[in-house]
Design goal:
Blueprint lengths: L1 E6 L8 H15 L3 E6 L13 H4 L11 H9 L3 E7 L7 H8 L5 E7 L5 E5 L6 E7 L9 H13 L4 E7 L14 H21 L4 H8 L5 H20 L2
Parallel strand pairs: 1-2, 1-3, 3-6, 6-7
Antiparallel strand pairs: 4-5
Cofactor: FMN; [4Fe-4S] cluster
Organism: Methanosarcina mazei (Methanosarcina frisia)
Pfam family, one: FMN_red
Length: 243
């Protein structure tokens, strides 16, 4: 099984989502999967021009020549594609949205009914990779993922595939406290859950209800997270203003 992660954080290799991805992939690799984590911030991905040339002029290929040519090949060559990104203002970051829009060539322009009374673009290929999502939000509460959750579920429908796993981590800035003596064991327990999730995806092609429930639980109480989070913001503001 080939699992490819497309990491769409503007911070590249410094974001909190990457910590989640690395643990998830460790579990997948232990279960025998071939894995790859592609950092979109390190790629040259120009914006879609919306001219439909990939459907009309060069069917199946974009007329913009950049890193997307290789990324589409890696996308289609995967058994499972993981979209990994933080929540930016209640939605996916612009770098991830640009990547998704440039996937248009793998579909056909013609419309078809999806079996549920809605319409979508028809398939260019017989088989598409299954999708999974790993996302991180700095604010507490699963409600922060409402827009992303709908976006990726609709995206799976658009690409004629299924969404086999959704991992949403609120209170995500807690990963910054990995060296804290009180937080370290709590974060370690959560990382172990992520590795288990990676194994389950390879072995079962889905996540169990138990691990979904455990992955969504707060690592620390929200009130405590907000208290220490605001104190940290106050510290950073003061630090930056006195430089």
């Amino acid at each position: 099984m080939k699992i490819t992660v497309f990491s769409g954080s503007h911070k590249g290799r410094e974001g909190n989502t990457l910590i989640m991805v690395e643990e998830f992939l460790k579990g997948a690799e232990e279960a025998g999967a071939e894995t790859e984590n592609i950092i979109l911030a390190e790629k040259n991905i120009r914006r879609c021009r919306g001219k439909f040339e990939c459907w009309l002029k060069t069917p199946g290929s974009c007329t913009i020549h950049d890193d997307m040519e290789d990324l589409i090949s890696r996308f289609m060559g995967s058994d499972i594609v993981v979209f990994a990104c933080p929540v930016y203002f209640d939605n996916v970051p612009s770098i991830m949205k640009s990547f998704v829009e440039r996937l248009s060539p793998v579909l056909l322009p013609q419309f078809e009914e999806d079996g549920k009374g809605e319409y979508r673009h028809a398939k260019r290929y017989e088989k598409y990779p299954k999708f999974a999502v790993i996302s991180n939000a700095g604010l507490p509460g699963q409600i922060n993922f409402d827009v992303e959750r709908l976006f990726f579920r609709r995206l799976a429908r658009t690409f004629h595939t299924e969404l086999v796993a959704e991992i949403y981590r609120a209170e995500g800035e807690i990963f910054r406290g990995q060296k804290n003596i009180m937080l370290k064991p709590l974060i370690g327990k959560y990382k172990k859950l992520l590795r288990s999730a990676g194994k389950e995806i390879v072995e079962n092609h889905m996540l169990s209800e138990k691990i979904i429930e455990d992955l969504g639980k707060p690592i620390v109480p929200s009130s405590l997270y907000i208290k220490f989070g605001n104190e940290e913001w106050d510290r950073l503001i003061k630090e930056n203003q006195t430089e």
